[in-house]
Design a protein that fits this description.
Two copies of one chain form a homodimer.
Chain A lengths: L8 H8 L6 H20 L4 H17 L6 H8 L2 H8 L38 E10 L9 E5 L20 E5 L5 E7 L4 E2 L5 H8 L5 E2 L2 E7 L6 E7 L18 E2 L2 E3 L2 E2 L5 E2 L3 E10 L4
Parallel strand pairs in A: 1-13, 8-9
Antiparallel strand pairs in A: 1-4, 2-3, 2-7, 5-6, 7-8, 10-13, 11-12
Chain lengths: 287, 287
């Protein structure tokens, strides 16, 4: 095909995909091409703007490394992550809602016993979490693998701190026979997502703030149940209604109860204020 | 805003762009978000597919370096480049048509005198080009800057060859007072675009061939005229109707005339076959 113009190009590309042997890939790519072309026609994208887009995507890819995923951050801030999570988790009313995965999970976090301190020395006021993992009918889920990660009191995940040689603010626990889980961490605070890369450039250019309300991340896996990827947000946070990545769900807001110095849930004597969170997770059956 | 679902997310993101002080950026990003979301909803993108997309874009960005632009190649193979070029060059019938820029241009190519050999030792049968640069009313365009680049007889641009320490197959010339331009290069051949990166993975997965019909690239700049970025394709090439990047225009097909050994246009005696191309470029006035 020759002499393709801005109107005939879409059919030409779709035709080129006609030999694709994978029907799902063909469906996805065909839809992507149609929407990409519609976008470029709709705004009458100029060549200089196209080149700026090429440079932007290139810089986004090059900002990624083993500890940083700028494309996930871009997807999060453009609302794509929340859209994908929402349309794949139409659950029963009882099950705990999912929210965005985010760019800060690290596989292979330390496995700690119940009651362990996941802070790893991270700065912050102590937080004592007591949670249950149950199925939809109330049955306890024993031996569920619970991956927990959080930022410290300065708003940084360990992977954002240069020179750390051990994990901070992340651990993997297993529930006991009653589906219970308890551990120590630090009180999460609101923090800005990283703004030193292309996503920060976009937020700045569009007049958007980079803040996320305080939260702790959970990923809970157990045989016979759907994996749950979620957060527990902190009640009263000023950014609950303007989360930079659109992830807040009312059902995921927890009461991080403040206590003055004194005896803590783990029996220790705390010399300063500490916080206690109770939360019940409900898993959806698999399949 | 809380409890956003896959249907309400689009309005939530657009609302977040309401403070954007740059109206054009706001227009482009709003359209992009709408189409990106429509795409994800239309195919009901799963979380695993989303992650595959994140990984694909990351790999594409990381394949780019000073000599390789994988996002341009992706744009080319998805037809976006041709669309953008076409919608920005609705020219008068007389002007030479534009086509895709491609990923292989390098700024700062050697400046050669008219008659110079741009091959730099690249393998290939000699090609003698004799061209004119004129305005729409036939006036010669003197002192136009003509950037020329091409692959060698094995289908490689110099930037694709490791260990080369000088440019091959690229040069910048200036037209003479009559708008004429002549130089020596090598006969272009059809070649596959690079398939060792994410774009190759996409072509392979969709059953598409990677071939481009033989061509020489030209970028012509002169004060008072629109910059022309184009190719001259080689008549008879088997890929003229299935260019992997959708760039062929009938008006850009040239006659690369084959000659047996003997005297060449530059007065030299050629011991083997050589080729001669004449082509007339017509520039559109600026503004």
């Amino acid at each position: 095909m020759r002499n393709i113009n801005e109107h005939t190009i879409t059919a030409a590309v779709l035709d080129r995909l006609s030999d694709c042997g994978d029907p799902r890939l063909k469906e996805i790519l065909s839809s992507l091409v149609r929407h990409l072309h519609d976008f470029a026609r709709e705004v009458k994208l100029t060549e200089a703007e196209w080149m700026a887009g090429i440079d932007y995507l290139t810089a986004t890819g090059q900002k990624c490394d083993g500890k940083r995923q700028e494309f996930i951050l871009l997807s999060d801030t453009l609302g794509l992550s929340t859209l994908v999570v929402a349309q794949n988790h139409a659950k029963s009313a009882q099950a705990t809602e999912a929210t965005v995965f985010g760019p800060f999970h690290v596989p292979g976090a330390p496995r700690l016993p119940l009651g362990g301190d996941m802070s790893g020395g991270a700065v912050g006021e102590p937080l004592f979490v007591d949670a249950t993992v149950r199925g939809r009918d109330g049955e306890p889920v024993a031996d569920a693998e619970v991956d927990v990660w959080e930022a410290d009191a300065e708003g940084f995940y360990d992977v954002q701190r240069a020179g750390l040689d051990a994990p901070q603010g992340r651990a993997v626990f297993r529930t006991d026979a009653q589906g219970r889980l308890w551990f120590r961490g630090v009180l999460p605070v609101a923090y800005p997502i990283p703004t030193d890369g292309p996503v920060g450039t976009m937020l700045n250019a569009t007049g958007r703030h980079p803040w996320r309300p305080a939260h702790v991340h959970f990923m809970i896996r157990a045989p016979g149940y759907q994996t749950l990827i979620t957060h527990v947000f902190r009640d009263g946070d000023p950014y609950l209604d303007s989360d930079a990545v659109f992830g807040v769900r009312s059902s995921l807001i927890g009461d991080y109860e403040r206590h003055e110095a004194g005896p803590a849930p783990d029996g220790s004597a705390q010399a300063g204020p500490f916080h206690a969170l109770s939360f019940g997770f409900v898993l959806e059956p698999a399949g």
